[in-house]
Amino acid sequence: MTDDPRYAQSAVRLIDGWVRTVQSTSRQDDSTLSFSYHFPAMIFGADLLAASPGFSSDRQDAFRRFCRETALPLNTMDRNNNWGNWGLVLVLACAKYLDDGALLDRGEQRWKDLLDEQIDDRGHLHHEVRRSGGERGIWYSHFSLFPQTIAAEILRLAGRDVYDWQSPKGRTVRQAFEPLAGWTRDPASFPYWEGDAKRLRGVDYFSYFEILHAHWPNEHAAELLRQSRPLTARHSAPALTFTHGGL
Length: 247
What we know:
By secondary structure, the protein is mainly α. The protein contains eleven helices and no strands. The protein has one domain: Chondroitin AC/alginate lyase (Glycosyltransferase).
């Protein structure tokens, strides 16, 4: 964004640090989930650095091998809850970066399967809304729909626009987005929690509304964005107001 080569040099140094020094990986506890939701940002960074003189073709080839041989096997795409959505982001980020059409095909199909499986007939993410007795239901709904949105954005950039795709059960991204936007603006309306709405956790994790609101303008999302910009996120896709806010 600045054309200052110091930033590129620092980013390449970080990428090389992973490629050259990582000798083992872990599958304990939520290690694979954490890797699935953090590592894609490094792939996005490598993509931005492709034309940088400091990121030589040899270094890029080494990073591609790391993506395929070390990163990709750690994905959690086969899981049915938010783990599956985050694993899908990792798979599709690798697929697009590696220009692997077969892997893109697998990721696109899994995106469609997850959409069909996770959303009920009211548009609620039924694996997530009752988490912690509902106290974390909005947070985990965001934590599932956010990666599903990022995955859709990667597919769009690969020439595969799935935003308006409808599943065999009639499920769509928009069907999940609209009630979740309403709950986020008015947490007291969340039907899976009977306690004080102020105790609901993670309600404000909606930076990805920058993407969905652009596709389907929504009064609740519009007001949330107006109040809260600029927005960022801890997982995979930071600075979404900058990248997708129409600035």
